[in-house]
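Reminder to self: keep the SMILES exactly as supplied, no canonicalising. Ligand is zinc ion.
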Amino acid sequence: MRNPKRPHTSSYKSPKISVAKCRTLISAAKEAAKKAYAPYSGLAIGAAVLAANGDIFTGCNVENASYGLTVCAERVAIFRAISEGVRVFTALGIFPNGSSSAMPCGACRQVISEFAPQCLIVLSEEPGKSRIIPMSKLLPEPFSLPSCQSYNLTKIRTRISNAAGGKR
Ligand SMILES: [Zn+2]
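Structure tokens returned for the bound complex:
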């Protein structure tokens, strides 16, 4: 079920991002990749999320011997921002150290979409080169639920409506 307060992602307008900001994001993601804990895959990934207020939060992948517990760099960066009280993002840069693809996995796409369905994904693909993809293209139909707030509002409106209509 789609959250009624959350329009279809394709109806969002993606923000613009400057070349300089892209470079800053990829540079921050590259630094974060140096801190990756990736003894199993050997793939060090760094991510940097750009908040609407200009702050940048970074993350690296953190693997685990129980593979399913591994957390990707993108989610680490977003969770760091959320834990600092920041929830509005305009872009997310990804740097894959030693890998040709920086494309976020399905789980990360869903998490990014929860907070920033309109954001831009900046992928570092070759040294000095990056590609920008709107999140709405990576996950056009994200899973969503009605939030508690909208659910309560609906219940309250129904009660008011019923009361006004004489239903008891
Ligand atoms: Zn991922």
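Points to follow up:
Residues 9-164 form a domain with the Cytidine Deaminase; domain 2 fold (CATH 3.40.140.10).
The first strand starts at residue 44 and ends at 51.
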